[in-house]
């Protein structure tokens, strides 16, 4: 018998999916850790002060959570009439940590990153495990790799993770939308009336929240719900009647959001007349231009890492992964719809915090579509062979894949430990590296110290007029804006400007 080469033996070695999942989870934890640690230097800015002004007054006067909620709802009602109709988003923005003290603002990245990770993991576990029939470790591997791409390559991490007012309206609402989609899937698959009733109640609540949130998540949720209802109706599925309540609640909520008087007041400020056809053309252009920008080497690397996991997981599954072309077309429609709100109102991608969740949505859809395509190929291969030809698939992946994961882990650890070749700029633009650079260079500490000096002046009862010092540094992950007028007004001072 001819002796097999070392490369051939290496290719045949296998490692468990659970081990690969643990390794990737550890790598993700290493990447997120500096982002959370940087949160201790996070400070409020701009609309944080505007939205917290009346709410903080209610808290200081009563120290009652009910009074805080009452002030928040009153603010939402006022803004709904004069500014914008996204009432659930306005409520979340009104209930920021600044209300209870500046020190609580350090929790912002913890809240946003936890929501993003939990929402993504829950969605992947539901879709891959409950629908595709693959193991939970395989589903988590896909989720962890997707999260690595989203967190490390997000266009503006400051607005997505560290600025409460912007991130809760977009990143947090995006995470809630993933939770809603996962629960809707579970509602369709539920077997008992009690479970369907409980899931219907939770889905209805989340549907109301999504309908009154930002227009990007809201429009995507509308399409998802419409597609689910159409599919269930065609199949005459028994879950259709349970799905009607969340769908109706979302429709009523989204209609109330769209028809708000405040939306008309905002549109009156634009110098152009919004045009739906122009918005569609712009959305088509944006979706192709930005997809080509984002499909770089990191995404290709993750696709290569995911392929063997999806292949072996799909070989064990009974799901046939039908109509992959239709799945890709549906995903493209959802992706393109994300650009429509900003294309309609601003003729652009929209603010960076909105652009961030479009990026999240694209990466998630691309990874799901890639796994689906590999699963379809694996299912075709499974059907074309007999069990004697291929043996019984096991919950393992090639050891070479595990080596690749270990290599990615080592590379990430190396990048975190050696963030720059000079004392000025980081070599890589990965978010974790930016965080470590800010921590090691001292710019984050200097930024926070300047904010504390401002607070000493702003909280001095003997001072009525203030001149605020400029921030000596502007860390890429922490600095969003420095509109001093809003800050001075929040503390009841008159700003002296040069």
Residue fraction in strands: under 5%
Largest sheet: 2 strands, antiparallel
Overall outline: globular
The SSE order reads HEHHHHHHHHHHHHHHHHHHEHHHEHE
Q: SS-based structural class?
A: mainly alpha
**Integer average pLDDT:** 88
In total, the number of strands is 4
Strand order of the largest sheet: 1-2
- Measured distance between first and last alpha carbons: 87 Å
Question: What do you see in this structure?
Answer:
The protein has 498 residues and is mainly α. It starts with 5 loop residues before the first helix and ends with a strand. The protein is built from 23 helices and four strands. The longest helix has 33 residues, at 352-384. It is 72% helix and 2% strand. The chain has a two-stranded antiparallel ribbon with strand order 1-2. The model is unreliable at 416-428 (pLDDT under 50).
């Amino acid at each position: 018998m001819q002796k097999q080469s070392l490369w051939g033996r290496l290719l045949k070695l296998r490692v468990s999916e659970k081990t690969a999942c643990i390794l990737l989870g550890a790598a993700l934890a290493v990447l997120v850790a500096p982002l959370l640690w940087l949160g201790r230097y996070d400070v409020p800015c701009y609309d944080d002060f505007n939205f917290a002004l009346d709410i903080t007054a209610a808290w200081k006067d009563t120290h009652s959570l009910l009074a805080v909620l009452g002030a928040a709802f009153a603010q939402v009602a006022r803004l709904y009439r004069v500014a914008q109709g996204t009432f659930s988003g306005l409520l979340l923005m009104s209930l920021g940590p600044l209300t209870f003290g500046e020190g609580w603002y350090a929790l912002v990245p913890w809240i946003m990153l936890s929501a993003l990770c939990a929402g993504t993991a829950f969605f992947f576990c539901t879709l891959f495990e409950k629908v595709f029939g693959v193991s939970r470790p395989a589903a988590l591997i896909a989720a962890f790799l997707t999260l690595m791409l989203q967190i490390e390559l997000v266009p503006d991490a400051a607005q997505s993770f560290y600025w409460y007012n912007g991130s809760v309206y977009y990143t947090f609402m995006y995470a809630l939308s993933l939770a809603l989609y996962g629960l809707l899937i579970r509602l369709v698959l539920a077997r008992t009336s009690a479970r369907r009733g409980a899931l219907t109640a939770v889905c209805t609540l989340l549907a109301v929240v999504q309908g009154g949130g930002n227009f990007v998540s809201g429009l995507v949720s509308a399409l998802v719900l419409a597609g689910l209802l159409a599919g269930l109706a065609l199949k005459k599925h028994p879950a259709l009647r349970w799905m009607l309540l969340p769908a109706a609640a979302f429709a009523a909520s989204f209609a109330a959001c769209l028809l708000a008087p405040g939306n008309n007041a905002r549109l009156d400020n634009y110098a152009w007349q919004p045009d739906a056809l122009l918005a569609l053309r712009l959305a088509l252009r944006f979706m192709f231009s930005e997809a080509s920008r984002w499909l770089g080497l990191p995404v290709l690397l993750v696709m290569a890492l995911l392929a063997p996991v999806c292949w072996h997981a799909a070989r064990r599954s009974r799901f046939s992964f039908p109509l992959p072309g239709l799945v890709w077309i549906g995903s493209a429609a959802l992706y393109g719809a994300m650009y429509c709100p900003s294309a309609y109102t601003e003729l652009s991608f929209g603010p960076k915090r909105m652009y961030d969740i479009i990026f999240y949505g694209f990466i998630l859809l691309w990874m799901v579509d890639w796994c689906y395509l590999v699963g379809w190929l694996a299912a075709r291969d499974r059907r074309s062979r007999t069990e004697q030809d291929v043996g019984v698939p096991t919950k393992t992946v090639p050891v070479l894949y595990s080596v690749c994961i270990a290599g990615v882990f080592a590379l990430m650890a190396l990048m975190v430990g050696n963030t720059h070749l000079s004392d000025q700029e980081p070599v890589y633009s990965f978010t974790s590296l930016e965080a470590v650079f800010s921590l090691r260079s001292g710019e984050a500490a200097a930024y926070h110290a300047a904010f504390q000096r401002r607070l000493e002046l702003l909280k001095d009862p003997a001072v009525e007029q203030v001149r605020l010092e400029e921030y000596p540094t502007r860390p890429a992950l922490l600095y969003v804006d420095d509109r001093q007028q809003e800050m001075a007004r929040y503390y009841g001072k008159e700003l002296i400007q040069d």
